[in-house]
Predict the 3D structure of the following.
Amino acid sequence: MSSTTTAPTPTGRPAINPWIVAAAVVVPTFMEVLDTTIANVALRYIAGGLSASVNDSEWVITSYLAANATILPISGWLSARLGRRNYFLISIAIFTIASGLCGMATSLEQLILFRVIQGLAGGGLQPSSQGILIDTFPPEKQGAAMTMFAIAGLIAPVVGPTLGGYLTVFYEWRWIFYINIPIGALGCLFCYMVVDDPPYLKQTRAELRRRPLNFDYLGLGLLVLAVSCWEILLSKGQEWDWYADPTWRAQTMAIVFAVSLIALIIHELRIPDPVVNFRPLADRNFAACSLIVFCVYGVLYASSTSLPGLLQTLFGYDAYASGLVLSPSGIGSVLMLLVAGFLMGRGTDARWLIVAGLLLMAAGSYWMAVMNLEISPLQVIWPRVVTFMGISLIFAPLTVAAFQGVPEKMRGAAVGLFALLRNEGGSVGTSVAKTFEERREQFHSARVGEFLDPLNPQVQEFLDQGQAAFLTETGDPAASRLLSVQALADLREQQAASLAYFDDFWFFAVLSLSLVVLVFFMRRSVAEKGAHIGAE
């Protein structure tokens, strides 16, 4: 940076150097995204500390995601009426205070309540910071700006489990919330000093002030109902056995969600000032990018939960050790983010970067799918590095391509909707991976068991050798025979579980490869200086 200020431009870009603004808004966003994964590894510690069951402690995650998803679509509406700068600062302040309250919670009910407040405040940070970056940087530098935003969106989920495991194991689970207080306070002060609203937002806010408040209460109610049922179904569906639930909880949630979503879409498309604006989806670039980001974040969060589960259940790693195995992927991510920003700045078509990233994702996931239980930690690290290099290569081009055809006055609504789909992709991916793994484990356990019959000479040889080994330890022939049978059963379950986890990564590879088709339905997207947004 050659200087800290620049002359104001005709478009009203701030006098502060854009990179200073980027640094200011990325920090709070990183903090918010970090909180979506940092508590995952601490659930059993939270349950023990608050005298609750592990299943009930999952509401710490569910409540945050549900509140976060509820506020995301209306962030554009709130930004327009409060002013994006004011809304951003209020969100940082409330998120920081709620984080401190989460750390001081004395019961699970209190923690869930404070997590809801934290999620409602945090939901406004991602779309606001993304909108600030888009409006702060000129078109030819938006690719580099989205690289800064991607650091928060992609590195935070990688750092979350490692940092959460470290704080929980070496300090206390409450510190996963207390750590937000100094970061949030400094971020709020920094953003107060350098962030400002562009002229078109100030004009929009002035126009809205002259109009009577005509809030879409029905739309907000339908949104809250749909998102709440959706998040609860995703979180508890497998525990309730999905649509085979004899108590009809899962079926009821699914029906209410479907009815609420259909009613929400119909209602919002019929009114001029909806709380959730679905009209940006009419642009084919935005629609395709929204579906891609939904699936990409599904793979991101699903792999970030499946791999630690594999390492902790089958390899005996603790939360901190498994987090260390995941951490090196962040280095490859940062390098690829810089590459993507450089290529976008040189006028590379975003579509080809997206295709390259999807192919890298597919290759990394397939590499992991063909592993076995004899692998070392180093062999786990490299497939994940390749996968995250692909995700990092996608992020900035995908964001630039998504908003090039969206009119300026619809950009706030589009950013909120895009962020909602991105977050919901993570929720869906986590739930699908968990369900798929459990169902495939049942399948593989049955298939492996087909060959473990008493007439199989290899089975008899294993049992005889096991009985002889246990006999030297116990001196009891009957107990030794039972222990050898149990060892065989444990080996079967271990192999079935490993095959199920590797099937998850096979599914991620197929999904990543299939997304390439969507890219060919998109318009050419190049961040050229002076280019018209949405140009063919």
Summary: The longest helix spans residues 411-449. The chain has 23 helices and no strands. Confidence is low (pLDDT under 50) at residues 1-14, 528-536. Residues 216-274 form one domain.
